[in-house]
């Protein structure tokens, strides 16, 4: 495949845009370097780059594009918003409609608020939890990503009950000192952290199904255990459902496991491809937020009509008959096909899959926490990524990301992808 125009554009981008990209995960640093492909147009499950190459896409823009690119119902909603004045700075009916849709789909949301990104949504839940509890410290799980505000750019200290250290330059040590990081799926470590810091903890941030060190499900009883222990300590449970809301079911991960958090942060899918964040939860907690309460959160673009219209349209598509069954069926076919090819060519992999999302880890053994995901073979993934790209299959350029299916993928796309996987594994085994 010829990538010459992408390479030229990347050279130009490097002159003007830091690192050539507007989000670091878009660079190919984690897959051995090189110029990222520059996409020009997306349609359904496919997109087309500036060199005229066509790809079956599994990146789905890191999650939001669950109904494929250019879905007619969503495109129409965005077109209408574009010609209807775009932005007013006043409330609109769309916000009411969308808030009601979210509440109906996710019962723990007694009140919601819209903002502009997953980062903003999670950041505000932390502020509100601190306002509500009058406490400062938070707990998060190692390897989870919650956006790019200071309090979550913190890495674990030397053990589950030690305070964190900054994971990015510019994050003050004083901020990191308010964050404790424990391993996912390890209730004993969680309890140890609470035993030590429990009376200072405002909230725990949980990705109920992890999407950021691959797709990793919670062990049976883990989420309920976290809920019980957190509440015993007088702290709040915040679910970061930025990836998981509407990814696996019409609703959220909390419904899949029957565990309710106090607050939930969302983003990605609920914007139908436009910028969005939203958070919500128990009424008395949400009423801490201005103008009712003392916790401030605002936004010029918050609840903007275009994002509202696209989000409503996206949920309308997802509410259709058989959507999640189809995603599961295609996901299962893809998983089986990948595992079969690995067996044929003697490649050691582990596939973690839930419905229409999966991660292929290079290495043996189950992956249930970040330490295990970290130990998988990144170099092998980098080779695999490029071999797939060269066959017109676009994956996320990192061993920690998921492959996301969309409603627009077909059985034939899956067959073509499995063939490409077979070829990639054959080359890797040679
Ligand atoms: N939370 C989770 C679980 C995410 O995966 C992400 C982004 O990937 C975020 C929060 C941040 O969302 P955004 O990139 O919209 O700010």
UniProtKB/TrEMBL annotation:
- Spell out the reaction equation it catalyses: (S)-4-amino-5-oxopentanoate = 5-aminolevulinate
Where is this gene product found? Answer: Cytoplasm
Q: Name one GO cellular component term.
A: cytoplasm
Query: Which SUPFAM superfamilies does the annotation name?
Result: PLP-dependent transferases
Which keywords annotate this record? Aminotransferase, Cytoplasm, Isomerase, Porphyrin biosynthesis, Pyridoxal phosphate, Transferase
Q: Which cofactor does it need?
A: pyridoxal 5'-phosphate
Major place of residence: cytoplasm
Q: Which residues carry this modification: N6-(pyridoxal phosphate)lysine?
A: 268
Tell me one Pfam family matched here. Answer: Aminotran_3
Q: Name one GO molecular function term.
A: transaminase activity
Write down the InterPro entries for this protein, in alphabetical order.
4pyrrol_synth_GluAld_NH2Trfase (IPR004639), Aminotrans_3 (IPR005814), PyrdxlP-dep_Trfase (IPR015424), PyrdxlP-dep_Trfase_major (IPR015421), PyrdxlP-dep_Trfase_small (IPR015422)
Per the UniProt entry, the signal peptide is: none
Question: For this protein, what is the EC number?
Answer: 5.4.3.8
Which pathway? Porphyrin-containing compound metabolism; protoporphyrin-IX biosynthesis; 5-aminolevulinate from L-glutamyl-tRNA(Glu): step 2/2
Q: Which GO terms describe its biological process?
A: protoporphyrinogen IX biosynthetic process
Q: Which domain of life is it from?
A: Bacteria
Q: Report the family membership.
A: Belongs to the class-III pyridoxal-phosphate-dependent aminotransferase family. HemL subfamily.
**PANTHER family referenced in this protein's UniProt entry, alphabetically:** GLUTAMATE-1-SEMIALDEHYDE 2,1-AMINOMUTASE, GLUTAMATE-1-SEMIALDEHYDE 2,1-AMINOMUTASE 2
- Known partners and oligomeric status: Homodimer.
- Protein name per its UniProtKB record: Glutamate-1-semialdehyde 2,1-aminomutase
